[in-house]
Amino acid sequence: MNKKDISFKNADGKELKGVLELPLNETPTNFAIFAHCFTCNKNFHAPTNISRTLASHGYGVLRFDFTGLGDSEGDFEDTNFSGNVEDLISAAKYLEENYHAPSIMIGHSLGGAAALFASKQLESIRCMVTINAPSNLTHVKSHFKSNMKEIEEQGYAEVNIGGREFRIKQQFVKDLDDNEDATALQEIRKALLILHSPQDNIVSIDHAEDLYRSAWHPKSFVSLDGADHMLSDKSDSLYTGNLIATWASRYIDSEEKEELSTDHEVVANLGEHGYTTQIRTGNHSFIADEPAKVGGADLGPTPYELVSAGLAACTSMTIQMYARRKNWSIQNVETHVSYSKKHADDCENCEDAGAKIDTFEREISIKGDLDEKQLERVLQIADKCPVHKTLSSTGKINSKLRD
Q1: CA distances (Å), 152 to each of 26, 149, 155, 157, in order?
Q2: What is residue 295's three-state secondary structure?
Q3: What backbone phi and psi angles, to 5 degrees, belong to 38?
Q4: Predicted confidence (pLDDT) per residue in 297-311, tens digit
Q5: What is the rounded distance in angstroms from the CA atom of residue 298 to the CA atom of residue 359?
Q6: Which parts of 203-276 fold into alpha helices (H)?
Q7: Looking at 197-329, which runs of residues are DSSP E strands?
Q8: Taking a C-beta distance cutoff of 8 angstroms, is the pair 89, 62 a contact?
Q9: Please, are residues 324 and 397 in contact by the beta-carbon 8 Å criterion?
Q10: Confidence label for 356 from pLDDT (cuts 50, 70 and 90)
Q11: Spatial distance between the Cα atoms of 48 and 37, rounded to a whole number of angstroms
Q12: Rounded to an integer, what distance in angstroms lies between the CA atom of residue 311 and that of residue 361?
């Protein structure tokens, strides 16, 4: 992915620091803003993993530090919930002035509540996403319930939240009370995705139910079963990012993509770190990767798995095309393909043409009412699959450097 460090001013003139995750060599037409959790920052694992996953799907994602947190200017003790909402609106203005107005607003925990309030004021937002978010803001006060008397008496208290000390002032508590009900969604007619873990012991699953009941359709709920509140397990945040990307594609407008220079051209982009490669073919985007044991992040299939997948898909399609022309009844074709050599082994001997023999093992399962003669013909047709012909022939690859 393409990572850019950016900064912008909030409504009070404070400079807020952020990171913009972009697809490689491509300016997306759809941007998202990620609102991090209470007292967190933009570099926590959940916002980082989710943002990068969305970028791999072709989205641009801005994550930033709220006022007084991380690298942003200001004092946390002088902030409040309304200020977080204003910061999100300032972030949206930055994207609109420099790229495209955001179409997706994502918020984690208290950031989810702030995302809902901000989305109400931003016409460009088409999709709202909450992750383990509270349905009412008084829930936040449970973090410093034991300090409430001290806050009331002297106007502030030093509160330990997540192992870190923060000064909470009376004005912060008052602002939570003034904006208590985050379920006030009746005036927001935008698509909503609620993601919540049943095992969340910070914000219970009941909050997700309250949000869902309050929202208009289209609304969706997906259980993040087994995840903790912070999405500490990397697989949970990666799953969340992939889920958001797929769900949002139904509700946002995609501008016409630039035509590729030749038919069937595939573009693969890989940055300077890792092996996670963004692939674009026509109107479709996906990623390839390597296993963790060879330095990859295992976020997608390996190159040889993609080749095998092409052979398997082409085989099933070719068989069904033939069967339909013959009016043969085949309910399902399932093609299994395995490759006999590993990518790492090939790289060690890639200059020696005689050091490798590419062998694909293919098994085809047919569900249908076919006799022995027809099944024998199906096996012959499998060998006529275009990808099969390509892989079994001596191909030619012409390479040159582009400007």
Answers
A1: 52, 5, 5, 9
A2: coil
A3: -60, 125
A4: 887 899 999 999 999
A5: 24
A6: 206-214, 234-248
A7: 219-223, 266-269, 277-281, 284-288
A8: no
A9: no
A10: low
A11: 12
A12: 10
Tell me how far apart the alpha carbons of residues 4 and 22 are, in angstroms, rounded to a whole number. 8
Tokens of 354: 């005689």
The distance from CA 35 to its chain's CA centroid, rounded to whole angstroms, is 14
Which residue pairs from 391-395 have beta carbons closer than 8 angstroms and sit at least 24 positions apart in sequence? Answer: 391/307, 391/311, 391/358, 391/360
pLDDT in tens, 104-132: 999 998 888 889 889 988 999 999 999 99
Instruction: Compute the half-sphere exposure of residue 344: CA atoms within 13 Å on the CB side of its CA.
Output: 9
> What integer is the mean pLDDT of 333-360?
69
Percent above pLDDT 70 for the chain = 79
- The kind and range of the H/E element at 377 are helix 372-382
Largest distance between two CA atoms of the chain? 90
335 pairs with which residues across the strands? Answer: 364
pLDDT confidence of residue 136: 77
Two structure tokens written together for 27: 């300016």
In sequence order, the 6+-apart residues with CB closer than 8 A to the CB of 90 are 8, 9, 10, 11, 16
Strands 284-288 and 360-368: unpaired
The stretch 24-38 carries a mean pLDDT of 84
Q: For position 180, what pLDDT does the model report? A: 63
Q: How far apart are alpha carbons 92 and 126 in whole angstroms?
A: 13
Burial code of 182-201, b = ≥16 C-beta within 10 A, e = fewer? bbebeebebbbbbbbbeebe
d(CA 191, CA 158): 39
pLDDT in tens, 228-282: 999 999 889 989 998 999 999 899 865 444 444 445 678 887 766 778 887 878 7
Rg (CA), the chain: 26
Number of H helices, E strands in the chain: 11, 15
Res 373: pLDDT: 94
Ordered by where they begin, the domains of the chain are 2-138+179-248 (3.40.50.1820), 303-392 (3.30.300.20)
Does residue 222 sit in helix, strand or coil? strand
What residues pair up with 160 in beta bridges, in sequence order? 165
Cβ within 8 Å of residue 131, ≥6 positions away: 46, 106, 107, 108, 109, 112, 195, 196, 224, 231, 240
State both tokens at 228: 């903790």
Is residue 121 helix, strand or coil?
helix
Strand pairing partners for 354?
A: none
